[in-house]
Amino acid sequence: MMRWRRAGPRRSQPVDPEPRSSGQESVWDYPRPPRAERGRRRVRIVHHDTLVLDTDDVVRVLETSHPPTYYLPRSEFRVPLGTAARLTFCEFKGEARYIDVLVPGADPLVEVGWWYPEPDLRYPQLLDRVAVYSGRFDEITVDGEQVTSQPGDFYGGWITSDVVGPFKGGAGSWGW
């Protein structure tokens, strides 16, 4: 199935979903507005030889053209979470507040994650959950597999072998 994206003002070009194998999801089958779903996948975050988080209680947010964004229980972080000054707004989920992660013996990871203190009523699963940019940590795994960060520096999706793109965030994808 071919999808269309804007390529600058007034032109469109097709975006061809990558072929998928059995057991894989295409981000082009994800909905817009996004869907939040609970799951039982083991997520481990390690930074500076410190276990930052180990949980199997995750919520994945799935949105067209984006790899899943994982939201993790605030209560399961094993290191302090600091408050960052940055705020952003999502048209679907509401106002996001950013966090710093304070790992002993390491420089603070500034604005490395975000959460929705009062998520939109459509996303109650996100209450008291944090998403983080995977590329800022030494290691993040999902079910033992090292994740890859979504391209670009704006979105926080995690790419694993069970998800295929192409993914929004890289050069030329802003208008998707």
Give a short summary of the structure.
It contains no helices and 17 strands. By secondary structure, it is mainly β. The chain has a seven-stranded antiparallel beta sheet with strand order 4-7-8-12-11-10-9, with no helix packed on it. Strands 6-5-13-14 form a four-stranded antiparallel beta sheet, with no helix packed on it.
Structure description:
- Helix content is 0%, strand content 44%.
- The protein has 176 residues and is an all-beta fold.
- It has a single domain, classed as Domain of unknown function (DUF427) (Metal Binding Protein, Guanine Nucleotide Exchange Factor, Chain A), CATH 2.170.150.40.
- The strands form 5 sheets. The chain has a 7-stranded antiparallel beta sheet with strand order 4-7-8-12-11-10-9, with no helix packed on it. Strands 6-5-13-14 form a 4-stranded antiparallel beta sheet, with no helix packed on it.
